[in-house]
Design a protein that fits this description.
The complex is a heterodimer of chains A (504) and B (350). Chain A has helices spanning 129-138, 151-159, 179-186, 188-202, 216-229, 248-256, 276-288, 318-325, 380-384, 391-399, 403-408, 419-423, 430-486, 488-503; strands at residues 30-31, 37-41, 51-52, 59-60, 65-68, 77-78, 83-92, 100-108, 165-170, 207-212, 234-239, 271-275, 294-300, 308-313, 332-337, 344-346, 359-364. In chain A, a hairpin with an 8-residue loop joins β5 and β6. The model of chain A has no long low-confidence stretch (mean pLDDT 89). In chain A, α10 (391-399) crosses α13. Chain A has a 6-stranded mixed beta sheet, sandwiched between helices. Chain A has a 4-stranded antiparallel beta sheet with strand order 2-8-7-4, with no helix packed on it. Chain A is globular. Chain A starts with 29 loop residues before the first strand and ends with a helix. By secondary structure, chain A is α/β, with parallel strands linked by helices. Chain A folds into 4 domains: 30-300, Rossmann fold (3-Layer(aba) Sandwich); 308-367, no CATH class; 380-431, no CATH class; 441-503. The N and C termini of chain B lie far apart (45 Å). Chain B is an all-alpha fold and 350 residues long. Chain B has 2 domains: 16-179, no CATH class; 182-336, no CATH class. The chains are: A alpha/beta (504), B mainly alpha (350).
């Protein structure tokens, strides 16, 4: 058993929130049975949509590649089970408000036949880092903390700079969510094994495994696994239970006391953060040849009859998952994908579980109360902001739609954690306002870029027309000149030839 | 199954503005009882008049602004302004004086600037200063504290009520008979008259630190203030800074020349120092918002109180100090903007 260490950097603000996690951590992770149908969005990651390489009617096997990444950033999608592709069509997904997006629909045959794993496998330690990264890319692995950035590309990007630390994020700070906690309790060795793969891919020698103090069972289990593994490169760090210490930049600051620059990445300060679930997925792919086709998710909230953590195939609908856990409680009124603070409100449970779905939260109508009053400048929002913004000032400028001021006051640095909302005595929906303001700023920037492109096009066209006109004039002048030099006889000859051709 | 949609975060704060205001009012109750005990029932009449006109004025303005009046009336901020104004007034104050202050506080200082959250000046102090300018003599009608052996003719409840309603005293009594100088007035005029602090403090209205009776009100205000701190309705920065801004210069001057400078204890327990530190300067709307800003804001108020008491022509300077620092708030907020995480300390933007 290896004891955790506690030396930590400073994090501004944050909140101690009620965890609401005991209900869902009371049972071990349960497996959701294979549903009749799976819906697989081709975009389950940051970047360009994957390109389907199967067609309607194709029979696919578990683990078979369905869509391959396109463009510079993306991840492949694999078949979570065996069956037949019955459609490739828009299907409700868990984007904000459950819009529709292209999905590959598979009718499962229930046999769950797996594709044969590739034979030429060398052990990963014998692979060069680049080859290992290429292999990780093929596993369809993305960040499972919810941000779903393609893991291989994150590693590749990080390798272009100097990385000192791999930080494994076991800080599941948002209330209700406990899937990482359960994973750490049940699969500590897999997580550590994944960490070793990542260390090899990065060619570095230190890894911090950060876990919150409110997860004693996970700390115990990881400590035991570390003792068993006896790998001195991996250090277990216990961090205080303060929301949002699990945010990527916040965790870097907490663990290493390094401040990720505005608009930059943790790799700018020598850190690379991966979720513990991602590490386990890397282990499953590299050691067991299973691509990312399932994940653990927390089903919780007052609107759920039996809160618990389940492992389900990617593509299983939320309705199937909730039904497996025992259905909704009465008066279930709101469905969130993700936690209560950063989750997305969804209008239908027909959406599939995707790689990003760390939690399904269902709450009752009575959870929302209180009406909005004007800001009284109490400043509590600023004191809890982990980025040290002044939400009250930002809100003021957001209402005035003052883009310059919004930028000046750091709107783009807002991580949308929702802490300011939670302390606002005037019940102002600050985070929602900031989200809208960010969207507007983005729109303005897009519009500017479009206008710049249009102007460039217009100027290029004018220049082209000018050039053509100049070319025509110089050609005419050249012809005139050559005719003049040839003399009247040649002109008469030309005219005569012209007349003849007209006569025909 | 279909679901209603909502923006996250779906949790909202447990605290609410009306609750905060009610807690401020509750924190004032012990001091209010002490005030009635020492200075008579006039406080209650003044409080009723101030509340009535503050709420009435607010209802009227909200109606004129075509906003729902009940929203403003039920946030209790007008009642807080009325209560703070009442604490600043002598217990013998005719109703029209109190009404003028309350109406100015709510209608002009608060709503003409945009209502709750938008007022630049502390409404109660703005109302008080208007009274100070418009009815200066009425602010001298402080009765003597009902304590010990002070030779004084106390008014009955009925006489006080008659005075509040009509502004006239019982036939046998003139203004001089019922009004007593406040400890700060006594100190100021005594020092101007070239007497030593020790001599001045021999006056029977002087207590252990400040004035008799006044000290007790100060104690109860401090208890209420600490309760607000514990309840996190207010933060420590402003009370501490107001205290430091006033007491540091007072202590230095007292140590240099105790004969002509009253002790820091006298400053602390006299006038509206404690009321200001915990209840007036801590008004979030008209104060600075960041912790550093609040320290500056409070230090400024404390120091200005000291300056006005020592070198100004008014005995107490709380209202002016607060209003002057209210004006400085935008500048303070500008220079105390916290460093955004991820930006270099020099404060560049991307």
């Amino acid at each position: 058993m290896t004891a955790p260490t506690y030396d930590l950097g400073k994090l501004h603000g944050g909140l101690r929130l009620p965890g609401h996690k005991t209900a869902s951590t009371a049972h071990p992770i349960r497996d959701v049975p294979l549903p009749a149908q799976l819906a697989l969005p081709i975009t389950q990651h940051v970047g360009d949509p994957a390109q389907p390489i199967v067609a309607m009617g194709d029979v696919v096997l578990k683990g078979q590649l369905l869509a391959k990444p396109e463009g510079s950033l993306g991840a492949p999608v694999h078949a979570p089970s065996s069956g037949k592709v019955v459609a490739i069509e828009p299907w409700p997904v868990s984007g904000r408000y459950g819009d529709k997006a292209p999905c590959i629909i598979i009718e499962c045959d229930g046999e769950d036949r797996a594709i044969d794993p590739a034979k030429e496998d060398q052990h990963y330690l014998d692979l060069a880092p680049e080859a290992l990264l290429k292999k990780i890319l093929d596993g369809g692995i993305v960040g499972l903390g919810g941000a779903v950035f393609p893991t291989a590309q994150k590693l590749m990007q990080a390798r272009t700079g100097d990385i000192d630390y791999l930080i494994l994020n076991g800080v599941e700070c948002e209330p209700y969510i406990s899937c990482d906690d359960m994973l750490m309790r049940e699969r500590a060795l897999s997580i550590l094994s994944g960490a070793k793969v990542l260390l090899h891919a990065l060619q570095i020698e230190s890894c911090y495994l950060a876990v919150e103090s409110d997860k004693p069972d996970a700390l115990q289990s990881l400590g035991e696994a570390l003792g068993e593994l006896d790998d001195e490169r991996i250090i277990l760090k216990q961090v205080p239970t303060i929301y949002p210490s699990g945010g990527e930049d916040q965790l870097v600051q907490l663990v290493t006391n390094r401040e990720v620059p505005s608009g930059g990445l943790p790799s700018d300060v020598g850190c690379l953060v991966q979720n513990v679930g991602t590490a386990a997925a890397v282990h499953d792919w590299i050691e067991n040849h299973e691509p990312l086709i399932s994940r653990v998710t927390t089903v919780a909230g007052d609107g759920i009859a039996n809160p618990m953590n389940v492992r389900a195939r990617i593509g299983t609908t939320i309705a199937d998952i909730v039904e497996f856990t025992g259905g909704y409680a009465e008066q279930a009124d709101h469905l969130f994908i993700g936690g209560p603070l950063t989750g997305k409100s969804i209008s239908t449970d027909r959406v599939p579980l995707v790689k990003a779905t760390n939690s399904v939260l269902v709450v009752l109508k009575t959870s929302f109360e209180g009406h909005q009053l004007p800001c009284i400048r109490c400043g509590d929002c600023a004191s809890v902001c982990p980025v040290q913004l002044l939400p009250q000032q930002l809100y003021w400028h957001a209402c005035a739609d003052n883009e310059a001021k919004l930028r000046d006051f750091g709107l783009t640095d807002c991580i949308e954690c929702g802490c300011c909302d939670l302390v606002c005595p005037s019940h102002i929906p600050l985070t929602a306002n900031f989200r809208i303001a960010k969207g507007r700023i983005q729109e303005l920037a897009d519009e500017k870029a479009r206008a710049a492109r249009a102007r460039a096009r217009f100027e290029a066209r004018n220049a082209r027309l000018e050039q053509e006109k100049a070319d025509r004039e110089s050609e005419l002048a050249r012809q005139k000149e050559s005719a003049r030099r040839a003399g009247p006889a040649a002109i008469a000859e030309i005219l005569k030839r012209k007349k003849e051709s007209e006569g025909e | 199954m279909e679901f209603a949609r909502r923006e996250s975060p779906y949790w909202s704060a447990r605290v609410a503005v009306p609750g905060l205001m009610l807690q401020v009012l509750m924190a004032l109750i012990p001091a209010a009882i002490a005030h009635v005990w020492f200075f008579g029932p006039g406080f209650i009449f003044n409080l009723l008049v101030a509340s009535l006109f503050a709420l009435g004025g607010e209802y009227l303005v909200m109606h004129l602004r075509k906003r729902p009046p009940e929203v403003a009336l039920t946030d209790y901020s007008a009642l807080v302004a009325a209560a703070l104004l009442t604490f600043a007034l002598p217990s013998l104050t005719p109703w029209w004086v109190t009404a003028t202050g309350a109406l100015f506080a709510v209608v002009v200082a608060k709503h003409l600037y945009g209502g709750l959250g938008f007022n630049v000046f502390n409404p109660a102090m703005a109302g008080y200063v208007v009274i100070l300018v418009a009815f200066p003599m009425h602010l001298n009608l402080w009765t003597a504290p009902r304590i010990g052996d002070i030779d004084y003719e106390y008014l009955t409840v009925l006489q006080t009520l008659v005075f509040t309603l009509t502004g006239s005293l019982p036939d046998a009594l003139g203004f001089d008979a019922v009004s007593r100088a406040t400890p700060l007035d006594v100190m100021k005029s005594g020092l101007t008259g070239m007497r030593t602090v020790a001599e001045i403090r021999a006056n029977p209205i002087m207590g252990d630190f400040g004035g008799r009776g006044w000290e007790w009100i100060g104690n109860f205000l401090a208890i209420g203030g600490f309760w607000l701190l514990i309840k996190k309705v207010i933060r420590w920065h402003i009370p501490v800074a107001v205290g430091a801004g006033l007491l540091v210069p007072a202590t230095i001057m007292y140590l240099v020349d105790p004969g002509s400078n009253p002790s820091p204890g006298f400053h602390l327990f006299s006038g509206a120092t404690i009321l200001c530190a915990f209840f007036i300067a801590t008004d979030p709307v008209s104060g600075a918002t960041s912790p550093r800003g609040r320290l500056l804001f409070g230090l400024g108020i404390g120091f200005l109180i000291y300056c006005i008491r020592t070198w100004g022509s008014y005995a107490d300077g709380v209202a002016f100090a607060v209003l002057i620092m209210n004006m400085a708030v935008p500048a303070i907020d500008l220079v105390t903007r916290p460093h955004i995480v991820g930006h270099s300390e020099k404060g560049d933007s991307p």
